[in-house]
Predict the structure.
Amino acid sequence: MDATIEKKYTFKDFASDQEVRWCPGCDDYVILRAMQKALPEMGVKKEDVVFISGIGCSSRFPYYMDTYGMHSIHGRAPAIATGTKLANPNLSVWVITGDGDSMAIGGNHFIHVLRRNVDLNIVLFNNEIYGLTKGQFSPTSLVGQKTKSSPYGNTQPPFSAGELAIGAQARFFARIGGNTPKEMTQIFIEAEKFEGTSLIEVMQNCPIFNDGCYNEFTDKAVREDKQLFVEHGKPMVFGKERDKGLVLKGLKLEVVTIGENGITEDDILVHDAKEQDPTLHQMLVRLHYPKVTGIIRSYNDVTFDERMNNQIKEVKMKSDFHYTDDLFFSGDTYEVK
Amino acid sequence: MTTIKTNHQPKTLHAVIIRFVGDSGDGMQLTGTQFSDTSAMFGNDIATFPNYPAEIRAPQGSLYGVSGFQVHIGSVEINTPGDEVDLLVAMNPAGLKTNLHAVKPGHTIIVDTDAFTKKNLDKAQYDTNPLEDGSLENYQVIEVAMTSLTKEALKDIEGLDNKSITRSKNMFALGMVYWMYNRSTDHTINFFEKKFSAKPELIEANIKVLNTGYYFAETLELIPNSYGVAPAKMAPGTYRIIMGNTATAWGFLAASEKSGLDLFLGSYPITPASDILHELAKHQHFGVKTFQAEDEIAGITSAIGASFAGNLAITTTSGPGLALKGEALGLAMMIEMPIVVVNVQRGGPSTGLPTKTEQSDLLQALYGRNGESPVIVIAASTPANCFDFAYQASKLTLEHMTPVVLLTDGYIANGSAPWRIKSVKDMPEIKTNITREYQEGWHPYDRDEETLARSWAIPGTPGLEHRVGGLEKDRVSGNVSYVPDNHEYMVKIRAEKIKRVQNAIPELKSEFVDEGELLVIGWGGTFGSLYSAIKDIREQGYDSIGLAHFNYINPLPKNTEEVLKRFKKIIVCELNNGQFAKVLKLNFNDFEILQFNKIQGLPFGNEELIQKFKQVLK
C-alpha cells in the first residue's frame, strides 16, 4: 500500500460498464456493492487490484469490477491467484469463489492456499447449493436437503467452511450474513489489511434454488438474537437486550444470560481473534446457536510470498551469479580450438 | 599428487561405446560421468545415457537393481549413446546377466571376480558361474579381483571404514579404462580434490585406487589391445557437458534474461521432468521463482496467474501431467496469455513406463483439449538443443501471445552431450507485446497486424484495467460475447494466429540430399538415431536418402510439402504407433506415407533402422 496515493476513489470507480446479470434479489448484489464501497477505503491503487474467480454464479464477479480480473476455470482460482501474487507482491489479489468451486472441485487448492498463507483475500459465497448448474446439492448442503440431484434428500454430510479452513491452518477467517452490507464492507477492509490469506465466508441467500436457507440466523427479526457478531478484545455478548453471552464450561461453550444466576458481563468470554491456538476459534465456528459472525480468527504469521521473496533476496546477495553467462561458463568447461 | 602420463601407443578407433554396470550402490553413474567428462575435455564428441532402476534402493545384487551408464565417444561426430557396446565393465553377476546381450561378439568384458560369489550368482539367477561354464567364450573376458585389489591398495591409509574402502572399487575400474583408452586421470583427481576437500583421507583413497587400476591395466599382459580415440573435429568454442533437462532449464534462464521478464515455474514433481524443477530451484540468484504446487493443475494455473502478472511463466510435466493440465492450457489459449508447457515424454498410456522413453504425447499436445484450441507445438531433438528450443518456446509464446507446448523425452532429457556454450548476448531478441500505458481507444483484444498477437496489459498499469476469462470474448472489447458470428470469428482468428507463426520459424531442411529415392522423416528426440543410421547406410552406397527432421509441429514449416515432393518414397520413423504420420496424412494427402514405429520404451537401434531403410529401398 502506498501512503502517497492522491486520488480519492468512490465506489463508482470500481464499477465496470457491464450489466450485472445475477437473479433479482440475490445477495451477490449486496456483496458486489459492499466490495465497491470497501475498495476506496483500503488505500490501494485501482490498477493494483486483481479479482480472480473460478466458475459458478459468484465467479462472474470480476466482470462487474473495473479492475484487473480473470474469470478462470472451475476451482482453480486460488492457484492462479497464488501465481499472480508471487509474481507481483505489490498487487491486492482477491479470489472470488463459491461453495462448490472452493470445497468440491477446487478443494485441494483451497486447503493449500490456506496452509501456505499467501497474502491474498478469498471471498467465499456460500449458498449451500449449485446455482449456475440449476439446483444440485453442494458440499455445504444439509443432510436431507431436497435438490434436483437429491430428490429424496441429500445423503452427504456437509463441510463447514470455517472448520475446514481453520483445520487447513487458515490464519484469518470471518463469517458474515449476506444481508449485512455495513459489517461486510468493514470485514473486507480488515481482510485487505491483514497480511496472509484472509477467508471471508458470506452466508449468501440464493433466492431461486435455496431461498431462506439462512433465515433462522439472518432474518432481520431474529438476527440480533441468533447471531453473535464478534469483535477482537470485546466480550462475546449478543441479543436484542445485549444480555446473552458465551462462557466456557469444561470443553464446551455455553450461552448464559447476564443478570441470571449471578452472571455479570465480567464472566463473559472476551474474543481474542489474534490467538495462535485455534481451539476456541474452531468452537466458535461450530456453534449453531448463536451463529457466530465477524472476524473469528486473525492470527498474524509470516506469509508465503514474504518468505519466498526474502529467500530470493538473501540468495541474490550471497551469490556470485548475476547473469546467466556467469552460470553457463562456470565449473567444468573446456576449449575446443 | 603426481598425475600419470599416458605412455603407450594405442590402436586408433573412430568411436567406442562403453557401458559401466553394477549394483545401484556401486557408483556407476559417477564412473560413467567421469569417463565421459574426461573424454569430452580431451576433445572427443560424446553422447551418454544413464539407465538406472525405478526402485530407489533395490535389493543388493538383484537383477532389477542394476544401474548402468553408457557413453559413446568419438573422433567423429557422435549423435547417440549407441546400441551395442565395445566394452562392458560389470561389477557383479546381475550386471553381467542383464547387459551381456548388448556386447558385440568378440569384444571385451571386464568383471570384478570378487563379486561372483555363490550368493550373488544366485541373486542373478545363474545356475552356474558364467566365468567358468564357457558361456562367455565368444568374448574377451578380463577377470580382475577388483574388490581385493582395492582393499590391498588401501590397507595403509588410516581413518577409512570398510564401507568407504569397498565403495572405491569403481575407481579401480575407471583407472583401468582410462589406461585402455589412453586418457589422463587429471580431471578425476581434480574432481576428488574438490569434492572431498574436508576429508583428505577420501581424496587419498580414491586417487590411490584410481592409479592402482591404471597401473594394473598397464602391467597386465591380459589386456589384449588398447584403444585411443582421437579428438573429434568440433567447432571451436567453449564447451561443457550438459544434460537435456539442464539445457531446457538454462534455455528458460536465458530467455528470462533476454526478455527482461522474471521467470516463474509452477510445477509438480513427475518422472522424468522433475530435474528441470530441481535445476531452476537452484537459481534464485537470477530471481527465478519456482513454486512446487499441490498438483499438476495448480502447477499450470499458478503459472497462468504469474503470466497474468507479467512473468515469463512455465510449467513442466510428463504425459499424465499434461492430461491433467489440459483444461488450464485451454484457458491460457482462450485468454491468449503467454505460457510454456514442457512435456518430457515417457512411455504411456496411463502411468505407462515412467523411466522409459516414448514419443506418444504428440496428439495429446496437439489436440488434448476441449473445443477448438490450437497451441504452438515444438520439439527439441538433442540434449544440447533443449537449450535452443526452451529459448525458442519462450520467444514464440511472448511474441505471439499463445501457449507453447515444448516436447522433449526421457532419452534426450537424461542423456548428455557436449554443448558449445551460448551467451545470452548471441541469442535472438525477444520482443514482448506488452502495452505499457493507456492510449485513447486501447482494447485488450487489439491485435498486432502481422502476428495477430493481442496486446498484453499487466496489472499495475494504470488505465488498462480489463477482464479476461474462459468465456468467449468480443473481438474488440474483450467483454463476454455469445454473438454467433463473433464466436466463429474468434475461433478462426485464434487458429490463424497459430498459422502465422510459420512466418517466424525456419523452413524445413532435408539433410544429406535435397531430393532422391527415400526421405526419412522424424521429429523430436529421435534425431541422433536417424541421423547416424542414414550416415552409416550412405557409407554402404545408399546415397539417395535424405532426412527431414521436424522441430516445429504446429504449425508445420511453410515449405513442408515442397520438401516431401522431392523424394520418391517417404517413411516416418517415430517411437509411437504413428502419431506424426497421422498429422502429415491429415495435412498432405498427395503422398504415400510409410511408417516405422517402435513402442518398446527404447530408442531406435542403428541396425534396425538400416535394415528398414534397405527394405524400403529394394
